[in-house]
Amino acid sequence: MAHVFVSRQLPGSALDRLRAAHDTTVWPEQLPPTPAQLREHAAGADGLLTLLTDHIDAELISAAPKLKVIANYAVGYDNIDVDAATARSIAVGNTPDALTEATADLAFALLMASGRRIVEAAGAVRTGAWKTWEPGGFLGADIYGATIGIIGLGRIGQAVARRAAGFGMEVLTTETRDAHNLEHLLRRSDFVSLHLPLTSGTHHLINADALALMKPTAILINTSRGAVVDQVALAQALSTGQIAGAALDVTDPEPLPLEDPLLQAPNLLVVPHIGSATWTARERMAEISVDNILAGLDGRPLPYQVSAQAGF
Ligand code: DGY
Q1: What spacing in Å lies between the alpha carbon of 99 and ligand 1's midpoint?
Q2: Which of 75, 258, 268, 295 has the fewest beta carbons under 10 Å from its own?
Q3: Residue 120 sits in the same domain as residue 30
Q4: Domain co-membership, 64 together with 178
C-alpha cells in the first residue's frame, strides 16, 4: 500500500476509491497547507494530489524521495515544476475535458455580465439608486453580432467559440505565436477572451502595448491565469478609459489584496476563480485526479498526463 497526500477535501466520492486502495491523508483545513506543511507531507508520500494553490517546486520534489506521481486537480499546471518532476521520472497529471464546458460557460457569463452591466444594474436596484426606467439608463454593449477575439484555441477557447457562434458573433482566433494575427485580433475585437496556459511565453502577454491596441469600447475577459495580464497596465487602461471594461475570474495573486489598485479601477468585474465551479466539473476533476494517482502508483501511463505542448 502506497501513501498518498491529498492537499484538500474534494467534492464527490472519488477519494473513497483512493482510500480503499492506498493509505491516504487528506488535508482537513479550508486554507491550503503552508509550503512547510506541504513539504512535510510530501516527504513520505508516493503520490500527491495537489491543487493550483500548492507550489510544487524543485525543492519540494527533491525533498520527496519516494514520489512517483503528482495529480493536479486542475487543467493548468503552472504551479508544478514539470521539468523537475520529469527529471526524477515522476509522472504529472491534470484534469482537462472535465471543466471545458463549465469554464467556457463562465467566460460567456462574464462577457455578458460586463457587456450588459448586470452587476452594477442589480446593485442599483438593491441600494435604491435606480429611480425610474430611463432611455439612457445602464446602456451597455451589444453582444449579438459583436466581434469576439479568442486568444488560445485549446479545448476551452473552442468551447467559447461555439457559444459565440450561437450569438451570431464574428469569431477571431489566434495562438500567441502569431504576433501579426494577435495584433489584428486586438484591434478588431469588441470582446477579447483569454484561454492560454501560463508559461514564460504568455506571462504578461496582455501588457500596456496590447491594451493600447484594443478599441476604447472593448472588454477583456480572463478565465485562464491572472499573470497572463499585466494588472498594473490593466488598472491604468481602465482608469484612463483606454478600454471599456474587464471581467476577471483569475488574478495574480489570488485573492487580490483589498488594497490592490486594480480593485479601485472602474468597470471591473472580478470573481473568485470559479471557472470550473460546477458540481459536475469538480466531481469529475476529482475522479480524473484519482485515476491519475492510481495509474501512476501502478506504474501505468496516466489517463491525463501533462505534456509541455498542451493548452487549455
Ligand atoms: C484549472 O483547472 O486550471 C482551473 O483554473 C481551475 O479549475
Answers
A1: 8
A2: 258
A3: no
A4: no
Residues 206 and 181 in one domain: yes
Average pLDDT over residues 237-250: 98
Task: Please indicate, yes or no, whether residues 239 and 289 belong to a single structural domain of this protein.
Answer: no
Q: Please state, in angstroms and rounded to a whole number, the distance separating the CA atoms of residues 223 and 139.
A: 25
Query: pLDDT tens digit string along 173-207?
Result: 998 778 889 999 999 999 999 999 999 999 999 99
Residue 257 lies in a domain: yes
Gap from CA of 299 to ligand 1 centroid (Å): 26
| In a shared domain, residues 181 and 230 | yes
Determine if residue 117 is left, alpha or beta; phi over 0 gives left, psi from -120 to 50 gives alpha, anything else beta. left
pLDDT at 312: 57
Task: Decide if 254 is catalytic.
Answer: yes
β-bridge mates for residue 239, sequence order: none
Same structural domain, 62 and 199: no
Among 99, 155, 248, the mutation site with the greatest number of ligand 1 atoms within 8 A of its Cβ is 99
Atom number in ligand 1 closest to CA 77: 3
Q: Which three cell numbers stand for residue 243?
A: 478600454
For residue 306, tell me if it sits in a domain. Answer: no
The whole domain housing 213 covers 100-270
Tell me what the mean pLDDT of segment 128-146 comes to.
Answer: 98
Q: Which of 117, 273, 282, 284 is catalytic?
A: 273
Ligand 1 centre from 75 Cα, in Å?
Answer: 5
3-state helix, strand, coil in the chain (%, to 5): 40, 15, 45
- 126, part of any domain: yes
Rounded to two decimals, the pTM is 0.96
Distances in whole angstroms, Cα of residue 167 to Cα of each of 80, 184, 185 = 37, 22, 18
Q: Mark whether 214 and 71 lie in a shared domain.
A: no
Q: How far is the CA of 271 from the centre of ligand 1 (A)?
A: 14
Which residue of the set 170, 183, 254, 283 is catalytic?
254
175 and 105, same domain (yes or no): yes
Q: Is the pLDDT of residue 310 over 70?
A: no
Eight-state DSSP code of residue 263: G
How many residues belong to the chain?
312
CATH number at residue 194: 3.40.50.720
Domain membership of residue 208 (yes or no) is yes
Residue 225 a catalytic site member: yes
Q: Which of 95, 274, 276, 282 to mutate to test the pocket of ligand 1 (most atoms within 8 A of CB)?
A: 276
